């Protein structure tokens, strides 16, 4: 039996580590860092947002965690995210997966999900 995406990403602990490193990558990415750097000055908000991202990835990858946050359209409404920003964020995710030793098939599965969400995130 094939392992779920959740299991292949390391379950809750692995996803938490991935999210922490993705957020850090976003804060260091000149294309999108302006959107993420303010979280450094608000650790409580950073922790809350990071937990929401963990829950989103855990639930969306087949884990038992429940995601109770806003939908993608609502969460990104009014942000006017450009194609360049979307690709920069996606590149950060993919680089982080690679750095964590996530296999190619799993990376491709995550990339497919990212592209499936593109229309709900960009310029909504």
From TrEMBL:
Q: Which UniProt keywords are listed?
A: Heme, Iron, Metal-binding, Transport
InterPro entries, sorted: Globin-like_sf, Globin/Proto, Globin_bac-like_CS, Hemoglobin_trunc
The keyword Transport appears for this protein: yes
Taxonomically, the superkingdom here is Bacteria
Does Metal-binding show up as a keyword for this record? yes
Gene3D superfamilies on file: Globins
Q: Which cofactor does it need?
A: heme
Pfam families (UniProt xref): Bac_globin
Residue ranges annotated as transmembrane are none
Give GO terms: molecular function aspect only: heme binding; metal ion binding; oxygen binding
* GO BP of this protein: oxygen transport
> Which positions bind heme?
76
Q: What is this protein called?
A: Group 1 truncated hemoglobin
Its source organism is Antarcticimicrobium luteum
């Amino acid at each position: 039996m094939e392992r779920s995406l959740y299991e292949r990403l390391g379950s809750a602990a692995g996803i938490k580590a991935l999210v922490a490193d993705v957020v850090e990558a976003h804060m260091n990415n000149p294309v999108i860092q302006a959107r993420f750097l303010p979280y450094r000055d608000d650790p409580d908000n950073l922790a809350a947002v990071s937990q929401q991202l963990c829950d989103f990835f855990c639930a969306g990858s087949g884990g038992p965690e429940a995601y109770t946050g806003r939908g993608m359209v609502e969460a990104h409404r009014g942000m006017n995210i450009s194609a360049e920003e979307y690709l920069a964020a996606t590149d950060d995710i993919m680089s982080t997966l690679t750095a964590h030793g996530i296999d190619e098939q799993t990376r491709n599965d995550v990339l497919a999900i990212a592209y499936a969400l593109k229309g709900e995130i960009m310029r909504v």
